[in-house]
Amino acid sequence: MSDEQLSGVGVSPGRASGPVVKVTESITEPASSPGPDDPYAEAAMIAPAAQAVAARLDAMAESAAGDAATILTTTAAMAADPALVSQAEQLVTAQRIPAARAVYEAAGNFAQALASAGGYMAERVRDIEDVRDRIIAELLGIAPPGVPELGRPSVLVARDLAPADTAGLDPATVLALATEEGGPTSHTAILARSLGIPAVVAVRGVLAMAAEAIAVDGDTGTVEAVDPQAPSVAATSAGSAEWDGKGATSDEHRIKVLANVGNPADASAAAEAGAEGVGLFRTEFSYLDADDEPSIDQQRAAYRAVLEPFRGKPVIVRTLDAGADKPLAFLAPEIEPNPALGVRGLRVAFDRQGVLDRQLEAIAGASADSGADVSVMAPMVATAEEAAWFAERVAAAGIGSAGVMIEVPAAALTASEVLDAVDFVSIGTNDLAQYTFAADRQLGAVAKLNDPWQPGLLRLIALVGEAGKAKGKPTGVCGEAAADPLLARVLTGLGVTSLSMNASSVRAVGASLAAVSLADCEQAAQAALGAPTVAAARAAAKGVS
Ligand SMILES: C=C(OP(=O)(O)O)C(=O)O
Ligand SMILES: [Mg+2]
Questions:
Q1: Belongs to which family (predicted)?
Q2: Is the predicted pLDDT of residue 83 greater than 60, yes or no?
Q3: DSSP letter assigned to residue 481
Q4: Are 475 and 495 within 8 A, CB to CB?
Q5: Alpha helix segments (H runs only) across 310-408
Q6: Does 521 qualify as catalytic in the annotation?
Q7: Residue 538 counted as an annotated binding residue
Q8: Quick check: 122 pLDDT over 70?
Q9: 105 or 11, which is more confident
Q10: Which residue of 69, 295, 388, 404 shows the fewest CB atoms closer than 10 Å?
Q11: Confidence of residue 120 (pLDDT cuts 50, 70, 90)
Q12: What is the ipTM score, two decimals?
């Protein structure tokens, strides 16, 4: 083994090693000459090429599920966007440039507009570049950039993967993933987790690594060179762990193991994985592409489709979390310098109460239709006063149980008062980390601060756990922290009463809790709380069990 070792942020657990395949970043910029003899015939090639790319992405979406399917469908829609095609066609005829060059320039204009919009929109620049390169490759009859056909099981190394690339990954041939960029809550991370592929992101220098074979450890966040002659090692699949389906420690202390869902496919996958219910239904995921507010009936039908697999089981429906990384066109705020600190989540409803009331009416209807045991919760709540306002709206809609997310540090610090206003809380560790460390959750450069093992974050969670215990009210965690089997024990020891995660982590977390007692969890929690660093917190928790 070589001593070449790099570290990043482990975002999907497991360890695997094998030959390196580097993902091609982008195609070469097409030249603007020679110009076409017949610009109209040249322009006419663009639409079919875009359609072919969209059809291929749609076909990939059909054989995918959950987040992967949604992302592929969204990317296919970008490829088929008539605005992109017609702008490129006009460039060909007006400037007499080749079709490939015109697509390059038109996509560049779109990318620039997205980048200057900032936040979630800026995140989509990678998607438009991916679509651009695929259409150009189609026009030129060359292989598209991105993940090549893997002839044998391999470890993928990339700057960052386009969502469509990640969504198309086959866990049978992709042993592990290491990227130079990306954060723990980026698309790459969420999808790698849902596919069960070990992954480390924000590994500075991984692209320049000369090693022919590497080992990727998604638990410790390390990447190291290994002997290329050694046989490939596949990840030990956490998903195969034994679990009887009831979330509890070995001494029967109950911790509900729930799932995070965004659409009917996720809900079916969660039910199949044995989730005891849903701890977070992200309703805004249904409307990321909607231009207008969906009607109450449309919402009711959409929610019912997600609730149905959970008849008789608890489901927490989150009201629209619009803004920042998840903008909804029909709830767009004024231009804001810092969208993550702006009018997002519940704040949108203060000025547009009708939107909230109509959504609550639809949720109440879907709850009755589906027979699921529905509660609702609000995102981005900062004060007890806001929590009380939300609870009033929920009661007025005839829904029996109201809660709020704790994802703003102020809400964690006043958890006791917040809990007085509602029936339960659920800690959103993704945003709570972002706001606690003043570190954009989408940004690779600050990814280490968004690690849920940060002792600063654990101490805030401890405050909420204590408040929940004192009030005797349920306190969940529905951020990505809940999906880590070892951290699940620490969260249990901090007083959390339910954990909600992607479907593929359900079994591993259930099994991890079943293997230890509540006293073990409490000891692990105390050990992690007292640790000075992320690595020390993880090691301390590991040392207990
Ligand atoms: C669960 C959370 O919400 P989202 O990831 O949808 O912002 C969170 O912030 O932890
Ligand atoms: Mg959040």
A1: Belongs to the PEP-utilizing enzyme family.
A2: yes
A3: G
A4: yes
A5: 347-351, 353-370, 384-396
A6: no
A7: no
A8: no
A9: 105
A10: 295
A11: low
A12: 0.99
DSSP structural state of residue 346: T
The answer to whether residues 400 and 448 belong to one domain is yes
Specify the 3-state DSSP secondary structure of 355.
Answer: helix
Q: Check which CATH number belongs to the domain holding 62 and give it.
A: 1.10.274.10
Contact yes or no for 123/181 (Cβ under 8 A): no
Atom of ligand 1 nearest to the CA of 428: 10
| Residue 143 burial (CB count, 10 A) | 11
Nearest CA to ligand 1 atom 6: 282
CA of 379 from ligand 2 middle (Å) equals 7
**In this predicted structure, what is the pLDDT of residue 308?**
97
**How many angstroms is it from 344 CA to the middle of ligand 1?**
12
Instruction: Report the alpha-carbon distance of residue 53 to residue 59 in Å, rounded.
Output: 10
pLDDT above 90 coverage of the chain, percent: 64
464-477 CB burial, b ≥16 within 10 A, e <16: bbebbeebebbbbb
Helix (H, G, I), strand (E, B) or coil at 397: coil
Closest CA to 131 of 140, 142, 144, 141: 144
Distance CA 42, CA 39 (A): 5
Span 167-183, average pLDDT: 86
Q: Does 31 fall in a domain? A: no
pTM for the predicted model, two decimal places: 0.71
In angstroms, how far is CA 21 from the centroid of its own chain? 25
CATH of the domain at 11: 3.50.30.10
Single residue among 235, 256, 287 that ends a domain in this structure = 235
Cβ distance 372 to 309 under 8 Å? Answer: no
420 and 503 housed in the same domain: yes
Atom 2 of ligand 1, nearest CA residue: 428
Q: Is position 253 annotated as part of the catalytic site?
A: no
- Of 427, 431, 435, the one to substitute when testing ligand 1's pocket (max ligand atoms within 8 A of C-beta) is 431
What's the domain range around 327? 248-544
Residue 241: inside a domain: no
Question: How confident is the model over 253-291, as pLDDT tens digits?
Answer: 999 999 999 889 889 989 999 999 999 999 998 887 788
Residues 483 and 373 in one domain: yes
Residue that is last in its domain, among 80, 107, 140 = 140
What gap in Å lies between CA 348 and CA 352, rounded to an integer? Answer: 6
Tokens of 147: 């993940």
Q: How far apart are CA 374 and CA 365, in angstroms?
A: 11
- Residue 242 inside a domain? The answer is no
Asked whether residue 30 is domain-assigned, the answer is no
List residues near ligand 1 (CB under 6 A): 280, 282, 321, 407, 428-431, 478-479
478, 494, 499, 541: the active-site residue: 478
Q: Distance between CA atoms of 366 and 371, rounded to whole angstroms? A: 8
pLDDT band at 470 (very low <50, low <70, confident <90, very high): very high
Question: For position 2, what pLDDT does the model report?
Answer: 45
The CA distances from residue 353 to 333, 356, 370, 455, 527, in Å, are 15, 5, 26, 38, 45
Residue 263 φ/ψ, nearest 5 degrees: -160, 175
Average pLDDT over residues 370-397: 98
Q: Name the closest-CA residue to atom 5, ligand 1.
A: 430
The tokens describing 173, both together, are 């041939």
Strands 314-318 vs 278-282: parallel, antiparallel or unpaired: parallel
Dihedral, CA atoms, 139, 142, 144, 145, nearest 10 degrees? Answer: -120
